[in-house]
Amino acid sequence: GNYNNDIGLPMTIFGIDHNTDIAVLEMGMNNRHEITRLGEIARPDVAIITNIGTAHIENLGSQEEIFKAKSEIMDFLSPNGHIFLHGDDAFLARYKDRPNAIFYGRGESHHYQAKNEENKGLEGSSYTTQLKCGCPVDVSIPSAGSHMVTNSLAAVAVGDYLGLDPQEIAQGLASFQASGMRMDVIKLANGTKIIADCYNANPESMKTSLDVLAKEKGNTIAILGDMLELGCQSQSMHLEVGNYAKSLGISQIITIGKEAKHMQAPMHFDSKEGFLNEAGNIITSGSTILVKASRGSRFEDIVEWIKEH
Fold first, then answer.
1. What is the pTM assigned to this prediction?
2. For position 72, what pLDDT does the model report?
3. 43 Ramachandran zone, left/alpha/beta (phi>0; psi -120 to 50)
4. Which of 87, 119, 172, 280 is a plausible cystine mate for 103, CB 3.0–4.6 Å?
């Protein structure tokens, strides 16, 4: 589970003892000043902001407000602390002149850059980067999606800052395993492959997952559900994702749910139960199937049905 709120984060901190060298804390928010509260508690030496997306825009109203909410962490860094930022993100790039900011990404001017990038589809990605000592590191990430390149580059940067050597960094990332229901690739005996990404969904993560699916050969099926907490922008954002999915040449696009109908897919079901009643006539063996929706839709039920049938 996530321990990223005002109950879970203190519980994690209370579990730290004298044998702990480094604690990694996630700070979640869906409103302003929630990061302020968690920052007051944690007082980190190092902080990372991975992106400014549209998750939780229902409560915050705009990406500008999301940017301000995530930036609250900077007020609580230790005196010599550093903030690591995704430099390709237009919002985070505003901090380019901040003395304690370290940037990572694909841009030429960043402190840590991904070079010679190779996308290996469901098998992950590889790239080369350089540490502050000038030492090169060949990174291999066994998890699909271009976003994993920049996420792993953040880990490279922090690992370098904390004194890990190139081999330790490369080995650590090569052994990475995603937590449950996040781009979890399940290969069945009959050749069917399921990309189970049922933990959360927003327009950015939907597009990234669809990109992964679109690169697969053979019959591809996208089963997409509601993206929640998008507020008054929900209809337009669902339509945007639907149009994006159609542009990728995916074999079948199926949507399920009240909000997902705005994706205007060729095949839509109002409920998960309605889809499962017809799924046997829709899904063919040997396909690559993306199953993605916000957590509230519990699309892991669909994943289990496919595995059983």
1. 0.87
2. 97
3. left
4. 87
